Amino acid sequence: MSTPPVYQNLIGGKFVDSASGRTFENRNPADTREIIGIFQDSDERDVQAAVEAAKRAYRYWRLVPAPKRGEILFKAAQLLVERKEQYARDMTREMGKVLKETRGDVQEAIDMCFFMAGEGRRLYGQTTPSEMPNKFQMSVRQPVGVCGLITPWNFPMAIPSWKILPALIVGNTVVIKPASDTPLSVYNLVQCLLDAGIPDGVINIVTGSGSRVGEPLIRHPDVQVISFTGSTEIGSKVARVGAEGMKHVSLEMGGKNPMIVMDDANLDLVVDGAIWGAFGTTGQRCTATSRLIAHRAIVGELTERLADRAERLKIGNGLDETVEMGPSINQSQLETVQRYVEIGASEGARLVVGGRTLRDGDYAYGFFHQPTIFADVQRHMRIAQEEIFGPVLSIITVDSLEEAIDVANDVPYGLSSAIYTRDVNAAFRAMRDLYTGIVYVNAPTIGAEIHLPFGGTKGTGNGHREGGIQVLDVFSEWKSIYVDFSGTLQRAQIDNY
Ligand code: UN1
């Protein structure tokens, strides 16, 4: 086997070893015999150096005209387009999801790059009339400073792009800590930005653990913005640290996304949508369809059809174009799935398909689990309430739209939801009453497009949105500017009344 490549931290435009000289290996979750790369196991000293570099670069970058920053992003987007296939392959090797999905992940970064590049010529502010004569006023977006970005492994390029690109277009600089399971895709994305002409120090990468890198990064007094995607448990810790330091904090966390299926739904469409929503990315999406809330009149037939399709899904190494579902990301995630299968069984749910880890033949070297469906799930069972982040779908039976919406909303999360129906009244009710940041009609809970706001209610986040122009609010501050050209002192609230 050839020697795996070594990746260094990127600090101030230079690739450097960690201060301690320690490294870690990253392996392919479909075949752990393959080492994808050796990465730096960094600590506080590396974070300190990266933040200093980002702070230095900020003095320059914030003054580069936004349309010029946009031009660099346009170039980077074009490079991503050229390198899409290679990066998708790298991503399948490091993350495990199938090629068509890793191509989609790179595409999402391309979309974001073009979108934010265009924003360089907008970054719209507002002008408003003054209460007084001969006075002009406006509000403009300002960059905030150094942004600390902590990104997950399930969308190893798309999610980093959602954070890096809006941060940069506004004029901030960044230090990113990629998930230790998928740092390579962040290096690939950042390489395009460097090749497109991003100056030294504007983007810095520090790899390593959450405790040794993530924590000092978010605590650093010179880091003004923290954008985090990951678990609710870590997210609430990030929120506390951010609150102490008076930082902008954007959190994107879990989901327990429901798909409501009414008795008039087109079941062919539902089967396609539910299989894609539940088992795409091996269920490892915050937006994954993890609860199917089906009307009693069709639940029996639907369960059978879903079980039949799930049973026939081809599982394996995502580099094989015929494979439909890859492995879990790592041993611990696989164990979580196994644990929830046991929990579901012990809670009295009916296992209709799957439930087993695959260990024979080539599967022995990866973290493969069968797509799993439980029926007769009760709304308050743990498998109906807790995020599993794996290929497990819970089917809950209901008798009416009202009950379906009530069950759908009765979880601690609120990211995405869906309804399948041909009844326009039911669809509009659901659109209004489903308490999630994203609602789909006759489509599964996954598949958000980057130019709409992405995020959720309740335990899913802290009210911010990624995607859309709304993301700019995370990475900018509003400045209100008053220009008095009257040549006299005009006292607001006094001289004009
Ligand atoms: C995630 O699950 O963490 O909407 C992100 C989707 C993708 C992004 C998912 N565009 O499913």
Describe the protein:
Keywords: NAD, Oxidoreductase. Homotetramer. Pfam families: Aldedh. Belongs to the aldehyde dehydrogenase family. With 497 residues, this protein is of the alpha/beta class. It folds into two domains: 9-253 and 461-480, Aldehyde Dehydrogenase, Chain A, domain 1 (3-Layer(aba) Sandwich), CATH 3.40.605; 257-441, Aldehyde Dehydrogenase, Chain A, domain 2. It is 38% helix and 22% strand. The chain contains 13 helices and 21 strands. The strands form six sheets. Strands 14-15-16-13-12-18-19 form a seven-stranded mixed sheet, with helices on both faces. A five-stranded parallel sheet has the order 9-8-7-10-11, sandwiched between helices. It is globular, with a radius of gyration of 24 Å. The structure holds 2-aminohexanedioic acid. 2-aminohexanedioic acid binds next to loops.
Give keywords.
alpha/beta; Aldehyde Dehydrogenase, Chain A, domain 1; Aldehyde Dehydrogenase, Chain A, domain 2; 7-stranded mixed β-sheet; 21 strands; binds 2-aminohexanedioic acid
CATH classification, class level of the largest domain:
Alpha Beta
The CATH architecture classification of the largest domain is: 3-Layer(aba) Sandwich
> Largest sheet, described in full?
7 strands, mixed
- The CATH topology label of the largest domain is Aldehyde Dehydrogenase, Chain A, domain 1
Counting structural domains, the number is: 2
Give the proportion of residues in helices.
25-40%
Principal-axis shape: globular
Structural class: alpha/beta
Count of DSSP H/I helices: 13
